[in-house]
């Protein structure tokens, strides 16, 4: 699956960031291991060896809950093979990417008559988006996180991708994001918000924004609003232009929770009445 492959690429490219997200201890040095395990060769999505903690972090990305053998048994199998091969403790995390109510996505152990094996489960749709929006390595996963306004979240993700200064990195992250966002959003919306034109335009504005130029911040906010709501009334745009620099910065964050233009109007009314 393309979705699983993108996640594997991210985990291998940014192992420290994934370890920081999934483990309580701060990793000092990480080695990415080959994913083929001994006996009958099987492949885990991402196997990361934390040398200083003498521990293996095994990340399994899942878009579907059905598999053969079932996921709980696979996690037991992986754990035994990893311990046999490396003789260190193993921390296992299954990350479900697409929202589901299947009980497998809420199961954190394998149980039979003689064995109980536990692992950790992360459901992306329950994760706070803030961590992912503020971390370049995890940004591509942000469209799958918890939100009351999915389209607003995607617009915020597009804005954060556009802020990546290095062109190659920006294009790669935009590509990963476009693929993973496909688990939740229509292709046309994804392509509109993550188009190269918008990426380039937003990056140009970053220099202005970082210097605290109010005009630049206004243009970035208006770009976000038009990307989110297709187009907004000129009277609302004029009210946005009347905001202070501090209010514009607050609006950039508040946009994440807006579901339609009426939320923007309400927010503007509150600012004007304060």
Low-confidence spans = 201-205
Helix content: 40-55%
Shape: elongated
The secondary-structure element order is HHEEEEEHEEEEHHHHHHHHH
How many helices?
A: 12
Briefly note the structural class of the backbone.
alpha/beta
The end-to-end span amounts to 51 Å
The main β sheet shows up as: 5 strands, mixed
- What is the strand arrangement across the widest sheet? 1-4-5-6-9
What number is the mean pLDDT? 82
The strand count comes to 9
Provide the gyration radius in Å: 21 Å
Portion of residues in beta strands equals 5-15%
Describe the structure.
The chain is α/β, with parallel strands linked by helices and 274 residues long. The protein is built from 12 helices and 9 strands. Strand 2 and strand 3 form a beta hairpin.
Describe the structure using short key phrases.
single chain; 274 residues; alpha/beta; five-stranded mixed sheet; two-stranded antiparallel sheet; 50% helix; elongated
Summarize the structure.
Helices cover 50% and strands 14% of the residues. The chain is of the alpha/beta class.
Please outline the helices and strands.
Elements (H helix, E strand, L loop, with lengths): L1 H12 L1 H8 L7 E3 L3 E2 L4 E2 L2 E5 L4 E8 L8 H16 L3 E7 L12 E3 L4 E3 L1 E4 L5 H5 L16 H13 L4 H15 L5 H7 L2 H15 L3 H16 L4 H8 L3 H10 L6 H13 L1
Helix pairs in contact: 5-6, 5-8, 5-9, 8-9, 9-11
């Amino acid at each position: 699956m393309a979705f699983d492959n993108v996640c594997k690429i991210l985990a291998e490219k940014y192992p420290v960031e994934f370890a920081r997200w999934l483990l309580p201890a701060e990793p000092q040095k990480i080695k990415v291991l080959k994913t083929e395990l001994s006996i009958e060769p099987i492949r885990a999505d991402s196997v990361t060896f934390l040398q200083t903690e003498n521990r293996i972090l095994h990340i399994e990305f899942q878009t579907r809950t059905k598999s053969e053998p079932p996921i709980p048994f696979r996690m037991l199998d992986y754990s035994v093979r990893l311990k046999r091969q490396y003789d260190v403790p193993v921390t296992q995390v299954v990350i479900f990417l697409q929202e589901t109510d299947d009980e497998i996505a809420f199961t954190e152990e394998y149980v039979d008559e003689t064995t109980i094996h536990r692992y950790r489960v992360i459901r992306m749709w329950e994760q706070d988006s803030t961590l992912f929006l503020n971390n370049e390595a995890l940004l591509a996963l942000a469209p799958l996180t918890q939100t009351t306004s999915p389209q607003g979240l995607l617009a915020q993700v597009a804005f954060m991708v556009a802020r990546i200064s290095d062109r190659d990195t920006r294009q790669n992250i935009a590509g990963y994001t476009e693929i993973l966002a496909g688990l939740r959003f229509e292709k046309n919306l994804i392509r509109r918000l993550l188009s190269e034109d918008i990426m380039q335009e937003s990056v140009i504005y970053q220099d202005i924004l970082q210097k605290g130029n109010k005009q630049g911040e206004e243009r970035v906010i208006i770009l976000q609003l038009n990307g989110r709501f297709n187009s907004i009334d000129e009277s609302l745009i004029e009210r946005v232009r009347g905001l202070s620099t501090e209010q514009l910065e607050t609006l950039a964050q508040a946009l994440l929770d807006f579901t339609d233009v009426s939320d923007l109007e309400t927010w503007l009314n509150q600012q004007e009445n304060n």
